[in-house]
């Protein structure tokens, strides 16, 4: 987990157009936690905290939400990423997460508001290993998550080093006489 999250933070730097000058490390433990030692202040601990700092450093605060409600929703989804998605959930837990997200995304394009936010970017990266492992028929069970995921991975810079995931199944039909 530690290496994946550290790679994800480096990818986020790249997405935001920041030079790769930050040094990320991880606190050891049952679930390693990312750490950023800043040049002009104390170290920052935690994925959501560091990611929010990088967004502000890049002067792209719109990714944190446009209104107070949207900013709160972004923070909510960042917490969801850390508490529900991370930590390699069991198959049963992963199924629960995908069901929750599919229900939530039923009438939404993005997680928080009407445009892409940091919540979408971090949720995309956190869900990528789960989505890669799903066969096509299971991706179809979570149609709203699949739609959202496919949409988010098309944004320039979001996918980074991760392979694109295909969601459509092409069927070959035999032609009749």
TrEMBL record:
Pfam families: Arc1p_N_like. GO terms for molecular function: translation elongation factor activity. Gene3D superfamilies: 1.20.1050.10, 3.40.30.90. The keyword Protein biosynthesis applies. SUPFAM superfamilies: GST C-terminal domain-like (SSF47616). Keywords: Elongation factor, Protein biosynthesis. This is Eukaryotic translation elongation factor 1 epsilon-1.
């Amino acid at each position: 987990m530690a290496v994946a999250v550290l790679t994800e933070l480096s990818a986020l730097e790249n997405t935001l157009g920041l030079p790769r000058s930050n040094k990320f490390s991880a606190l050891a433990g049952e679930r390693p936690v990312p750490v950023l030692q800043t040049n002009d202040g104390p170290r920052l601990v935690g994925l959501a905290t560091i990611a929010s700092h990088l967004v502000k450093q890049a002067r792209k605060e719109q990714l944190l939400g446009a209104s107070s409600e949207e900013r709160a929703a972004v923070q909510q989804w960042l917490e969801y990423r850390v508490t529900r998605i991370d930590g390699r959930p069991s198959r049963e837990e992963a199924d629960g997460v995908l069901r929750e997200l599919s229900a939530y995304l039923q009438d939404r394009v993005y997680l928080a508001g009407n445009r892409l936010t940091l919540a979408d970017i971090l949720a995309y990266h956190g869900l990528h290993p789960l989505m890669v492992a799903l066969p096509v028929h299971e991706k179809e069970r979570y149609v709203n998550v699949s739609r959202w995921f496919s949409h988010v991975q098309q944004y320039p810079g979001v996918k980074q080093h991760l392979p694109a995931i295909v969601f459509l199944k092409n069927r070959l039909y035999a032609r009749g006489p």
